[in-house]
Design brief:
Blueprint (H helix, E strand, L loop, with lengths): L5 E6 L10 H20 L3 E8 L4 H10 L3 H18 L6 E4 L3 H16 L4 E10 L4 E2 L5 E4 L8 E2 L16 E5 L7 E10 L1 H14 L6 H13 L4 E2 L1 E3 L14 E3 L1 H16 L13 E6 L5 H15 L14 E3 L2 E2 L10 H7 L4 H10 L7 E3 L1 H31 L11 H10 L2 H9 L4 H22 L1 H4 L4 H21 L5 H11 L33 H22 L11 H5 L3 E11 L7 E6 L5 E5 L15 E5 L5 E3 L2 E3 L2 E2 L1 E3 L5 E3 L11 E2 L1
Parallel strand pairs: 1-2, 1-13, 2-3, 14-16
Antiparallel strand pairs: 4-5, 4-9, 6-7, 6-8, 9-10, 11-12, 14-15, 17-18, 17-20, 17-26, 18-19, 20-23, 21-22, 24-25
């Protein structure tokens, strides 16, 4: 394997039309941060590049809905996103944005160089145009009937109901989301990157030279290459973005997928205006992209083709893309608010950034989609961070405080069990590194936690609190070795749980260390004064988790109500047909459940005409029928009498079905006389 002088690490630019959620953190930013912190601890030269992706149609749609400018939208969310990353310890060297002046100029120059080299092809095609709005329509500005599932409201790029990818020309009865009018087809010219021209070298570079890539990444690339690459547009008709720097391209901007990855380079130049090139052009630099699976093709095929066409850039050495994280068994969706937003998490769980980092790494969707549940979040915190890691650290420090005044005791003669314990964690550095080097962060964190398990078992087995009355020399040895394991934990968990490791180093009075110190048994010398012990983690109770579950249930309920669509209108009836129905008002005198009938309620009504009994199948919607007494309801008086469960039902009470399937009795808006007609 080639040795590099330095490493450039990028993480996918989050789209600045909303805050970031746990899916983003699990799929991209925590893994990238773990890797960067690991390289820094090893003393390697590394640069961590991030930023907000601030162009594209979804931003213009959001701005139009809110009646503000696209710049207002990206300014708002860039700040929210940047703050969230800072609060969770995502340690970027630079976090900038694609609306910066530096990026606009850099991306424009990049396009122009490829244009001047003849690396693009010009093509004229027909695209939908809104004559009322006077503009071409991006895919998301066109809706219509899906040709596959026939759902209304499918977008020009995808049907949200069946998930099928579409093109605007696929839609049945398309219409503009801007004016509601039917768009027309007009010719427009765009520039395309001919990926087919790059297919031969891409096939060798990926399929032969990078067989070490993760199977999900390698497999998706192979699938695209096997289907044959096609030219891909690098411009589009839009008024928000970087103008195409070519004469005659008025009203056209660089396609967001083209300008966004260039943001990695422009952000580096913003940070290091005089030395940025060594991080992007020196063959001694290793380039690693952290992304989600929806960006694999862009970072493994499209962006490398752009860099190769330019001619002076290095290509990515690895692209350790993750799959998606689901939430409580359902796909995370920003439009449905089905997510755990990072800024809201910190409001509900202040100071518990590392708990979320730990759980997301333990459930990382490294090769397949995985699921986050609040019960698992609670269990991992209480059973692993608190009961194993935190418990061991607390006992070791508190016992040292109690018996030796908080100073590291001297180590006496080792027993066979002491030596066995030391052998167990002697390889911890190699074990953790073995997984970190190949981007298996879930397994690497598990190895770090195994060190805590070794320490916890050692203290539990030796029970120094029991032998303190008879053999303090033995207690000193046990605690000396336990404190060495604690110090090792501060190093092993530094890439994963930076806040907790910093807190632990403070308790150990251990200001500095290196990754190469991991596995050593002399990190704390005898007589070293420790700091004040404190709980490293604390339990999360059932009520805190239940509150999160209820929040999600409320979201699901709201989504069901929003997505509820009334049933189709029934066939027409004449006015005379309607007049045949005798709908009247009555007051409920009694209401009880009908024995041996789960769905039936028996109503006794004051109908203004001597009273009547009606049975209604709404028992499951009204579990406490006695509460209906005194309510006025509408009923059909001339509905034929039917005998149900041995009871004559003299009419039919009117009810409506809510979005959640619950039946709701229909009432007059204010009290009226019993027996009056409705209509």
């Amino acid at each position: 394997m080639k040795q590099f002088k330095r490493t450039t690490v990028t993480s996918a630019l989050p789209y600045a039309n909303g805050p970031v959620h746990i899916g983003h953190l699990a799929g991209v930013y925590v893994p990238a941060d773990i890797y960067v912190r690991y390289l820094r601890l090893k003393g390697e030269d590394v640069l961590f590049i991030g930023g907000s992706d601030e162009h594209g149609v979804p931003i213009t749609i959001k701005a139009r809905k809110e009646g503000v400018t696209p710049q207002d939208i990206v300014d708002r969310y860039h700040n929210i996103i940047k703050k969230s990353f800072e609060e969770f310890g995502i340690s970027f060297d630079v976090y900038s944005r694609t609306t910066s002046a530096i990026h606009h100029q850099f991306a424009s120059d990049f396009f122009r160089k490829l244009y001047d080299k003849g690396e693009f092809v010009e093509k004229t095609s027909e695209q939908y145009y809104d004559e009322e709005a006077g503009q071409f329509l991006a895919d998301r500005y066109i809706t219509g009937e899906c040709p596959h599932c026939h759902a209304e409201g499918a977008y020009g790029d995808q049907c949200e109901k069946c998930g099928t990818s579409l093109s605007p020309l696929d839609l049945i009865n398309p219409k503009s989301t801007i004016t509601g009018s039917k768009p027309v087809l007009r010719k427009t010219k765009h520039w395309y990157l001919p990926l087919d021209k790059h297919e031969e070298w891409l096939r060798k570079w990926i399929l032969e030279d990078h067989k070490e890539w993760k199977t999900n990444v390698y497999g998706q690339c192979k699938s695209w290459l096997d289907m044959g690459l096609q030219p891909r547009a690098v411009s589009r008709d839009l008024d928000w973005g970087i103008p195409v720097p070519v004469e005659g391209a008025e009203g056209k901007v660089l396609y967001v997928w083209f300008d966004a990855p260039i943001g990695y380079i422009s952000n580096t130049k913003e940070l290091l205006p005089d030395s940025w090139e060594k991080w992007w052009k020196d063959p001694e630099t290793r380039l690693v992209h952290f992304i989600g699976k929806d960006n694999i093709v862009f970072h493994c095929i499209v962006f490398p083709a752009m860099l190769k066409a330019e001619g002076s850039y290095i290509l990515p050495d690895n692209v350790p893309a993750n799959e998606f994280l689901n939430l409580e068994g359902d796909k995370i969706s920003t439009s449905r608010n089905w997510a755990v937003w990072l800024h809201e998490y910190l409001e509900d769980f202040p100071g518990k950034q590392d708990v979320l980092r730990y759980v997301l790494t333990a459930n990382a969707p490294e090769t397949k989609d995985n699921d986050f549940t609040w019960k698992d979040f609670q269990a991992r915190n209480n059973n692993e961070l608190v009961a194993v890691y935190g418990n061991f650290v607390n006992r070791a420090l508190v016992l040292t405080q109690k018996y030796f005044g908080g100073k590291v005791p001297a180590c006496g003669e080792l027993t066979a069990y002491d030596r066995e314990t030391l052998r167990e964690f002697a390889d911890v550095k190699a074990d953790v590194e073995r997984y970190l080097d190949v981007f298996r962060f879930r397994d690497a964190q598990k190895e770090a936690m195994n060190l805590a398990r070794i320490g916890n078992k050692y203290l539990a087995d030796t029970e120094p609190w029991k032998i303190a009355k008879t053999d303090m020399e033995r207690v000193a040895t046990i605690l000396h070795l336990s404190l060495q394991i604690v110090a090792n934990l501060a190093i092993a968990f530094e890439p994963f749980l930076p806040f907790s490791s910093e807190k632990l180093r403070t308790m150990l009075n251990m200001p500095g260390f290196r990754w190469n110190d991991l596995g050593k048994i002399d990190l704390l010398s005898a007589g070293h004064q420790l700091g004040t012990p404190a709980l490293l983690f604390d339990k999360i109770d059932d009520s805190a988790v239940e509150a999160q579950v209820q929040k999600l249930l409320a979201t699901k309920k709201a989504n069901e109500i929003r997505s509820y669509k009334p049933s189709a209108v029934k066939a027409d009836v004449t006015f005379d047909d309607f007049c045949k129905m005798d709908i009247r008002v009555a007051t409920v005198l009694e209401c009880t459940k009908v024995p041996k009938a789960d769905k039936l309620l028996q109503f006794r009504l004051d109908d203004g005409m001597g009273g009547r009994t009606i049975l209604s199948g709404i028992a499951q919607s009204y579990p406490h029928p006695e509460e209906l007494v005194g309510m006025q309801v509408l009923y059909v008086a001339n509905f034929p009498t039917r005998r149900l469960k041995g009871i004559d039902s003299e009419g039919m009470i009117l009810s409506a079905e809510d979005a959640d399937g619950r039946l709701v009795l229909v009432q007059p808006s204010r009290p009226v006389s019993n027996g009056v007609n409705v209509g």
